[in-house]
Amino acid sequence: MVSDIRTLKLAPLALFFFVVSFAEPQVGWPDCSPTADAHFPNNGTAGPFGPVSNFTAVWQDHPVVTIYPTIGTQVKYPVVVFMHGSTGAIEMYWDNLQVWASHGFVVLFPYIKDPAGDRNPLTTNTNGEFLLKAVAFANFSSTENTSSPIYGLLDLSNVVLAGHSMGATCSIMAAQRTAAGEPRIARESVKLVVTQHPGICGPFGPPPWPSTWMESDLSEVVDAFPTLFTTATNDGAFWPAPLTAKHELGCWGGGVSQNGTHPAIFVQFSAAACDEDGAHPPWTDSGHDCPFKTAVESPWVITAMKLYAQQGGRMDSNCATMLYGNGKGSLKTDKHVEKLELRSNPLATTATAITILEQDLGPDKASLTKCLRLMDGTVDKATLIACASEIPDLAAAEDTCALKCSLEAIGVYWACAAVCIEKAAPDSCITAGCLAATTAFDVPCLKACNQTAMVHQVSKRR
Hints:
Elements: E1 6-9, E2 52-59, E3 62-69, E4 77-83, H1 90-102, E5 106-110, H2 129-143, E6 154-164, H3 166-179, E7 190-196, H4 215-224, E8 227-232, H5 243-255, E9 264-269, H6 298-309, H7 318-324, E10 337-343, H8 348-361, H9 368-374, H10 381-389, H11 397-422, H12 428-461
Helix pairs in contact: 2-3, 3-4, 4-5, 6-7, 8-9, 8-12, 9-10, 11-12
């Protein structure tokens, strides 16, 4: 399966409801779809950038496996660094790592010691150091080592930090260190953090501190980056199932605020979805090892990686609709999901706005929501005006007020985005900062409309 790995020796070197993101996807990256992105029953489907190749290089005395697309593009490939769990082997994850690379990512898999040494349960790392070493290796290989197969191929401004079990704890801690100013990687380069079945949060774990993460660590991570956190109902790695999943949710909830700067997703996959299927001998792939499967967690990792590392975090993309929406093909409707928690959902504000209007303006004026539903990240001010002009009851004073709020909110969002672009700020300036600014403007405006309408109604009764 990995017998063709080549080895190189390297010298160690010291909007409220209408979120229209101005972060453009890089040219050539296809949008998401359940079929193309290996979602069940299409699991294992290779992406358009395969076949893939691989090599192993020794970096600062530690091996790093690199899996990369062989199909050239006009742009460079985003980078995924993935850390394995305790006693982990690359063969456990091989099917998924290859599929990820075929979708247009260069995937790096670092070892703590080496393939044999990392199978020893005493070989551990939980501070994210080897993910950060892998990032440094990627930077050197792409920018300085002209003999590297990935020289000039990497987009190091789009990095995903990921891991499973012990490696999931590493992804949290590497992200926390990055948010705090880690010199080997720029904070704005990290576009997504994926943590699959991490150890229970400290201080008592298991595993106990300092071999685990704290709720405060996760809080720093989600304040800086979008985050995908997964577990399974039948995960019994740290507590007897289903208590591991219960504790994971408690840790996640304790570290993630209700209205944070970046979206945070908690997904608990069902025991049936993560049951043993015998597909990865000699290892099991049930419960805690559900990330080995190709049909359950991995497709959603692809969707999230494509959204943030290829599509620029655009909320008008299919990737965003699949990840944050509630329609067919979305994470919310995935039959494998038993429990889903979304905080700071960038698409949820559409439904929130409609609910506010329907409640505040009353059902007889709810036709205004027809226009608001159009503003789900894809249309502009002119389209809203055209829609509004077709609705007779918008002549009512309270509806006119609400429409005025909507149009002015668009202006707030666009003005904020212009400042972000002018200052060359990270994508989050627009996708999170401008969203917050727009919401802060529009919700009070809409409520004021309702208060004005109530005053008018009282006046009429008099």
